[in-house]
Amino acid sequence: MTKELKQEYTLRITQANKTQLITILYEMILIYIDEAGDALTVDNRADYKMAIRKIQGCVNELMESLHLEYDLAQRLLQLYLFVNRELGQASVHYDMEHLEHVRMVIGELQKAYKKIEDQDTSG
Does the predicted TM-score (pTM) go above 0.85? Predict the structure, then answer.
């Protein structure tokens, strides 16, 4: 992620409501998947592993934010655990197949959360 993009995300995070924060994390995961793909293209294993660690950090943040007393949170947890397993497989096998599974899940979640962002009136 470029310095400018980091600054943009920092600004967005400071102004975001709770739903927007989740959407931002999803966007960051998608960017890191692209970075992993770029690293794979040039056979840079160090950058590939770093991108996966960044994705895992975002997913861990998402899991920690869940309120597990709600059924929806339990379902999201299952998706995040699936994503973590796929990240582990991607790290071991050094390929994009598992990261594409992650992209599919996170992309769909991001679309859903994007639709409800404006309904969230939290600070």
Answer: yes
